[in-house]
Design goal:
Blueprint: H1 2-39, H2 41-49, H3 60-69, E1 75-79, H4 85-92, E2 97-102, H5 105-118, E3 123-126, E4 140-145, H6 156-166, E5 167-178, E6 205-209, E7 220-226, H7 231-240, E8 243-251, E9 273-280
Parallel strand pairs: 1-2, 1-4, 2-3, 4-5
Antiparallel strand pairs: 5-9, 6-7, 8-9
């Protein structure tokens, strides 16, 4: 029995070391991409609009979902908040307090610039979601995860365990993400409407291009790692972390990079994004 326990501990330790390799590489890739994001038109637009009373970067789908679950007066946390634009959008919606968590120092520096310009008080924590500081609050009423977060996560079970740990009992988690079905297609391929990857291909997939959102060529950058997860794996990992599924909606519009827009508004539609609303039971 003791030998079996030791073997299990060794296997768990190796898996954690492997995950750390991926998350550390992704942090370096995001830090390298930050200057490109701060130099573009989108950044200039944020600087010009962030102080407005009705500031928001949420599209209609996410805004309606958040309004339905309620933001006003809530303690809110966003996991993987990037440059804080959505943290500040939550604050503008009436959240009592908002904490943004991200592991990229470079993007959090941008977040603090935006927060200063906005005049809104928001907090930011630089941390790997798998290695949150012990004093990280665990009493948030609402958690938010948005586009392009889950595919950076090598271990969904540990990820949702960490996210669940941030929520108070009866707290709500809203997820607005790219649909896993879309991972089967490559819009830059010679035949973008034929699947180029199995739905069940979990990766990891290495990428050596600097991360951009607008379809532009950022050149070569540090290697980053991308993981595909099926819808079943996502929901199952969340439920196993003590989160009860309350709502699951799928949509035919794109909420990711602009090159994926070619799959919108076609006669035969595919699921391109989704929302999940989950509530912490324990």
């Amino acid at each position: 029995m003791i030998v079996e326990v030791l073997q299990l501990m060794i296997l768990v330790g190796r898996a954690m070391d492997e995950n750390k390799k991926y998350t550390s590489a992704n942090r370096a890739a995001w830090d390298a991409s930050a200057p490109l994001h701060e130099a573009g038109e989108t950044w200039q637009r944020l600087l010009a609009e962030v102080a407005k009373a009705d500031f928001s970067t949420f599209d209609e789908t996410l805004r309606e979902t958040l309004e339905d679950v309620g933001v006003v007066g809530k303690r809110v946390v966003q996991v993987c908040c990037n440059n804080g634009r959505e943290v500040l959008s939550l604050s503008a919606m009436g959240a009592k307090t908002v904490l943004g968590i991200d592991q990229s120092d470079a993007f959090l520096a941008q977040a603090r610039k935006l927060a200063h310009l906005s005049g809104r008080k928001c907090d930011f924590l630089c941390a790997d979601i798998y290695e949150l500081p012990q004093d990280t609050p665990g009493d948030f009423d609402l958690g938010l995860i948005t586009i392009g977060v889950l595919n950076w996560m090598p271990d969904l079970k540990r990820f949702f365990d960490a996210v669940s740990g941030l929520l108070a009992r009866d707290g709500v988690l809203v997820i607005y993400e790219t649909h896993p079905f879309l991972e089967m297609f490559d819009p830059t391929s010679a035949d973008p409407f034929s699947p180029s990857q199995s739905y069940f291909d979990r990766g990891p997939h290495a990428n050596e291009d600097t991360i951009t959102y607008d379809g532009s060529d950022g050149g070569q950058g540090p290697v980053s790692w991308w993981f595909s997860h099926t819808m079943g794996e996502i929901v199952s990992a969340a439920v196993a972390a003590g989160l009860k599924l309350e709502r699951f909606n799928e949509y035919p519009h794109s909420n990711r990079e602009t090159e994926f827009d070619i799959y919108e508004d076609r006669k035969v539609q595919i699921p391109m994004c989704y929302t999940l609303v989950l509530r912490k039971e324990r």
